[in-house]
């Protein structure tokens, strides 16, 4: 099996493109708002450093040593019980499931880009009306823009690692960074920037419930694209003798800086124009458009740029969510890339439509079980169950199963004195943390 190689910069941009997604710009600010700011951000940052970093290296290592699809990599690297470990590899294919809702949200963003060219809603109730109408009645609009998202993602994936994924990221990621940096400079000159700073960085420990704690840890994994095979499949295309440690540090720092910058931009604007920071998933779709309206023409320009950046972030993550499955089909089922990409595209496209119907007032009741609709179930199962579980399995696999010498042969030199600390983290700290958090996210334990 032959996997094309990324260039070094191409790999970094693709990995950052995967990590920086809707999680950074849409989810991070609204969950920070919901769970009370500073203390939540601190737990998230600590998890990124203490657990996320070591699991990212573990996931990169599996891809890098395996040099093939996720399932094959687990099989090749397990010295014994290859048949059993193969099933762990299947967990890394679950990214395509995330696309059931991820592509739908990208569709909303496209819709908001079109809105930003015209008159934006002047008040929060008006903005709420537009958002709620889109959610509960706008089936046609949602399907239209979800189709656009499906077409772009599939077109990139059909072109493969070099001509598709690498090129796409090399253009969109620098553009996204430029937009966010520009917006950050803009808000730094506003009066309420310092208020946003203290909202995000001064912890109010009283608001850190056990749920907030678990959500912060879960989000740290989601935002770093861990546990879904994305980082793994990209690392299978790394040049030999690449430095995994440096690459993960780069990805983690860039991902974190972009999330923090997006949060600061959003909260400064919200405070400046007296809007609510704790608005839930509607934060960027409800509070923000009315803020942009209040800013006049500058607001329209900022709105277009902001939603474009959000779309770029979402699209570059999307390709990484589906690529592991495509590589699996190519490797194991001997499918051509075009056939694999189109069939996986259609797969998430169809279920995305089910997700859209599950939000609609007329059809929601048929697609709701146990108080959650299909859209929420997919989000819940992927973020709260599959992702931490797969992260846990990867840490255990690299910490206990892959031969020690093989792991050391790559990482010891790259890490130096840090190597024993990393090993301790993948063997003990990460599995325990992930296990506890997973049980909490599933509502099985409280702490
Ligand atoms: N990291 C992406 C985000 O923050 O939106 C989401 C994601 C992409 C998760 C790829 C997992 C993955 F494999």
Give the strand tally. 2
Which cofactor or ligand species appear? 4-fluoro-L-phenylalanine
- Mass-distribution shape: globular
Instruction: Count every helix, treating DSSP H or I runs of 4 or more residues as helices.
Output: 19
Major sheet description = 2 strands, antiparallel
- Give the fraction of residues assigned to helices: over 70%
Architecture, CATH level 2?
Answer: Up-down Bundle
**If you average the pLDDT, what whole number results?**
93
User: What does the radius of gyration come to?
Assistant: 21 Å
SS strand fraction = under 5%
Examine the coordinates and then state which fold CATH places here, giving the name of the CATH topology: Sodium/glucose cotransporter
**Which quaternary structure do these chains form?**
single chain
Q: Give the spatial strand order of the biggest sheet.
A: 1-2
Domains, number? 1
The class by helix and strand makeup works out as: mainly alpha
Strand/helix succession:
HHHHHHHHHHHHHHHHEEHHH
Unreliable parts: none
